[in-house]
Predict the structure.
Amino acid sequence: MSPGLALALAGLALLDALNTSAMLVAVAALLAAPRRPVASAIACVAGAAAVFLVVGVALYLGAAAAQDAVTGGLLAVRRAGLVLLAVLLLVHAVRRARTRPGRAPGLPRWFSPGTAVALGAAGALGDLPTALPFLLAVERLVSADLSTTAAVLALVGYVVVLSLPSLVVLGFVAAHRERARSLLAGLLGRLGGKERSVPVVVACVVLAAALLVAAALA
């Protein structure tokens, strides 16, 4: 792998880390888990990382297979991916056009690091529709002249870099738990609901339209 591609993937991973749902789920586990909160929070991060890795490998193998199977297969995959992403953005726009009451998350007494993995995975699945850097990273790997092993290892590195900011935030929250609890209470409450956001709706619709145009012109 060239240094340029490695730096590009690292930059995309750090940009992808700004997608906050999975990170907020991990912070919620740290603050609200009835037992072993630190282990539960780390398990949330691991669950989110596993989802990104599995989806990334599946997308890479599917796109690579299409590219090898038919002429122009990669172009077809790109178009399908752009259309799918546009649809997901429109769905997100519809959801953000409505107001749902938020509430601070509560975790049952049986919540454990094992169940935290599933919670982190759910948070990552919520991030995927807006994980544009992640999709770009997979596209770059498909376009690059890499072996399957090298591409999978690159995706592992991408997920590691993606997870580092969450681990840093968890370390800070763990060291200042009481102050963080009050500062993040309102933010964590958004996990249970969303306020209507006209700018987000407009941005999603405009971006979806741009993706559809790009798919048509590809």
Notes: The chain has one domain: 3-217. The CA atoms of residues 189 and 202 lie 24 Å apart. The chain has a mean pLDDT of 75. The radius of gyration is 19 Å.
